[in-house]
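Appendix C: a fully annotated inverse folding record. The material below is reproduced so that readers can follow the format used throughout the book. The structure is listed first as tokens, followed by the designed sequence.
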């Protein structure tokens, strides 16, 4: 059975993606007081122009606060795991953070997302905020949100041939030549529906504010344990999104497909064959995201997505 490498294809896009710097060996001969510091790792996006400068700035800020056991320009959190970090800093945007969590698999760590990108919905810290008031990360209990992930398995003739985790969603996309497709959905072995349209989204609560929201799906509390099924442009007006318990097993079969029909997990296209069946369950580990305690849990929804704002009357 094939499985995505934990270091995604983005790692091959630049030589910088394969560079990683461990601190000099004299860091292994620290005083006892330094050994008691929290062990941290830093992953910085190889594709962000500001990443190198921010990486150095982060290491400078952490001096005396934590023991940096790994720092590098990479999306691959596996490189840090042999050094046993307790906390991981992700420098980039939401994509960098999601790639880091993907690469960790079942060995998830609390992740602090530092935004160097545009929206920064999950990566809600700035470097300036950490320098000004980030000592809370080392003073007590971390303000964590524990979020479910999904496991997506492609099954061929009843056998699993490919599997990956997804933090946001798994999406069936009609693809070229963009005729309607038909998908059959069963839950725990019981038939739920056949959907004809442009596709189907299965989202986690974290993904409820992503593709699901754009397709008219509901917003879920991030720490909820549920999946959302949202049809994309269904032919029948009677279809509405469906929210179900994450303990369910969702199975999707493509009854009618296009030559370009595709399956994507967190935006990464999977090696789909038209005969494959997609099985979705809750992943065995949870996504551990460090929250900014200076903001409410609903702050990003209001600030970033402008949720609940009234009409502009001016």
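Designed amino acids, in order:
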């Amino acid at each position: 059975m094939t499985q995505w490498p934990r270091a995604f294809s983005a790692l091959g896009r630049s030589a910088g993606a394969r560079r990683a710097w461990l601190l000099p060996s004299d860091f292994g001969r620290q005083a006892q007081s330094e050994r008691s510091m929290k062990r941290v790792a830093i992953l910085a996006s190889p594709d962000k122009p500001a990443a190198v400068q921010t990486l150095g700035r982060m290491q400078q800020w952490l001096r005396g606060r934590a023991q940096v056991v790994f720092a590098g320009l990479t999306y691959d959190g596996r490189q840090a795991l042999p050094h046993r970090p307790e906390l991981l800093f992700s420098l980039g945007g939401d994509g960098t953070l999601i790639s880091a969590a993907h690469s960790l698999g079942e060995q998830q760590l609390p992740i602090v997302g530092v935004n160097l990108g545009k929206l920064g919905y999950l990566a809600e810290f700035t470097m300036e905020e950490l320098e000004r008031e980030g000592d809370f990360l080392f003073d007590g209990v971390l303000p964590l949100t524990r979020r479910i992930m999904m496991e997506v398995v492609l099954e061929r003739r009843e056998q699993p041939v490919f599997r990956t985790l997804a933090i946001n969603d798994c999406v069936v996309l009609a693809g070229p030549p963009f005729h309607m497709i038909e998908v059959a959905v069963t839950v725990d072995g019981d038939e739920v529906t056949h959907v004809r349209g442009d596709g189907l989204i299965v989202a986690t609560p974290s993904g409820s504010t992503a593709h699901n929201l754009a397709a008219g799906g509901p917003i879920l509390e991030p720490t909820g344990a549920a999946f959302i099924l949202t049809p994309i442009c269904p032919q029948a007006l009677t279809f509405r999104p469906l929210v179900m318990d994450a303990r369910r097993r969702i199975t999707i079969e493509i009854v009618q497909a296009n030559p370009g029909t595709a399956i994507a997990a967190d935006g990464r296209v999977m090696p789909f064959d038209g005969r494959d069946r997609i099985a979705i369950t809750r992943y065995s580990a949870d996504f551990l995201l460090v929250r900014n305690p200076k903001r409410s849990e609903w702050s990003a929804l209001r600030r970033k997505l402008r949720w609940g704002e009234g009409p502009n009357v001016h």
